[in-house]
Amino acid sequence: MAESIKVVVTGAAGQIAYSLLYMIAKGDVFGQDQPLILHLLDIPPMMGVLEGVVMELEDCAFPLLRQVVATAEPDVAFNDVSSAFLVGAMPRKQGMERRDLLAANVKIFKVQGEAIDKFARKDVKVLVVGNPANTNALICSKYAPSIPKENFTAMTRLDQNRAQAQIAAKIGVPVCNVSNVIIWGNHSSTQFPDGSHSAVEINGSKKPVPDVLKDDNWLRSTFVETVQKRGAAVINARKMSSAMSAAKAAGDHMRNWFKGTEPGKFVSMGVVSDGAYGVPKDIVFSFPVTIENKNWKIVPNLPINDFARKMLDTTAKELEEERTEAISIIEA
Ligand code: NAX
Q1: 149-179: string of b/e by CB count within 10 Å (b at 16+)?
Q2: Which CATH number fits domain 5-154: 3.20.20.70, 3.40.50.720, 3.40.50.2300, 3.50.50.60?
């Protein structure tokens, strides 16, 4: 059997982590032949709850789980880790302004970036789930200059999975028959869920989704809005934000990063923009990517029509504004 790898989950006492830790420890992310040491980070007031989570992990008797380290110290949590799920973040409280939320999170992701820089493996793969995920990932990477910026990503996989499910339901096929749905931009209501390059397998043959649907209007309106507002719809119904589906998406994101994407398929990840598709550099923007040998590559040369151009520009603008605000907080 392979040597154990260390994996950290922050916000480990929270609701997403409760589902995510199960998936990781069971072998659904890094494989059934990969033993694990789990590092769980949360804040001091949550250490009691975290103790309960540790007990449950022990009681699951997972064959792959070799050790669990629960801590409130970033230096301990990030020590020697190969993979980091940054789930913990300051939630938006009533009466809190956007800037206050950003300020609280800039502080958290600065501290964690510094700890990653000092203590994590240099090839650590970082996935930021905690919101505002894209800008948090950018800040984190800025404070970890010894780690390649390609190693910092933000989660838009939940949006992708939601989009894939909407298209599958509309056509009436199993969700696994739909591929290559794209989420462009920010994990926010400005994101652009794009079904125009997606494909569907029907009776063993693959067809472009727009040709099967024959309803571009749906793809540009109802579909986009449903995916953009799906998080709010779940909160309305459940009185709590998406957790099981968010954990599943985080696992999907990291599994693809470690194990690669299937031939002919791509997935969406928030990555530091290199200027592809006319997107400004130095923002964490969700692009379609393929992954091989743990390296992601933005899918090149997809045609971008006028509608898509407008959508890409809107979400990029929001990310530039978030970056400006975050940097002004840091420099204040
Ligand atoms: P919970 O409030 O249940 O859990 C968050 C946990 O993070 C708490 O235990 C808290 O004590 C901890 N925490 C806070 N500050 C911390 C710090 N500095 N270090 C370590 N831990 C810290 O939230 P949950 O529902 O699990 O959601 C976590 C984050 O995911 C939120 O920011 C949420 O907005 C975000 N989401 C992101 C999604 C995405 O697609 N990118 C979708 C789901 C989710 O809304």
Answers
A1: bebbbbbbbbbbbbbbbbbbebeebeeebbb
A2: 3.40.50.720
